[in-house]
Design a protein that fits this description.
Radius of gyration: 21 Å
Structural class: alpha/beta
Mean pLDDT: 92
Distance between the termini: 26 Å
CATH superfamily of the largest domain: FAD/NAD(P)-binding domain
Amino acid sequence: MYDIAIIGAGPAGLSASVYASRYGLKNVVFGFPGGLTSETHEIGNWLGTKLLNGQEFAKNSEEHAKSLGAQIVPTLVKTIERKDGHFNIETQKAEKFEAKTMLLAMGTAHRRLEIEGEKKFHGRGVSYCATCDGFFFRGKTVAVIGGGDAAAEGAVFLADLASQVYLIHRRDELRAEDYWGNLVKNNAKIKIIYSTNVLEITGGDKVESIRLDKPYDGSNELKVDGVFIEIGAAPNIELLKLCKVDLDEGGYVIIDTSGKTSIKGIWAAGDLTTGSDKFRQIVTAASEGAIAAHSIKQFLKGNNNNTQYLEKAA
């Protein structure tokens, strides 16, 4: 029986694991270390480290958690069941675990445009991760769709590989922080197309062009070899439905300042929560994980009989 089952191995989950282990709580972490953070090209705002990439961050975080005794199970959770005052968890590999409490830290998933051709060409020119797939477009023409930090960062990264990068944003100005915005605007390889939507992705065996809702350089068709969709992310809600925790209208888990959800015995941390005013950064996810672990420690100390973890919170 574990004290805490942590579902999600991104910054929130692994931070919680580190704190839980230091508190002497037996914990197991489900998921692939790093989460979406592992796809990040450049991390320059993690205190104490001037610059590292997402894969380095993920590896360092995993090794740190393991060094303190965490068990990391690199697979996804299939089912969660409440029984006899604890949680029964089964993975997609049919592995079974029991835990007294649970921390939800599954993060978010890439948002889709939901346009014609997006699903058809996924993996054949359509990607949601510039740092993962940019290598395949060396010397080619690509489009990045979005206007936030992820889109700007992706465009800058791709500009080092591709011959031409179009950054297409539906608004009349970028939403990215000034640092990334300035890099985009000062890069000769990047052309920004404002106030424009992509209506369709077309091609034969692979992406060949995109159709715009207004002309660019006299045409609604733009020839590209690849399309990188960077329009944000949404909560991973499949398991949330099983847990029956309260969600806000956007599908994010409602938590209090300690990470508690509406169900006693279940905490949540990171990008899938309403915490930190939805300022979704590695540092806020890690801090929420640490805070939740501390709250769980206090909870377990006050429940020495190890029963009744799952009642609806008052």
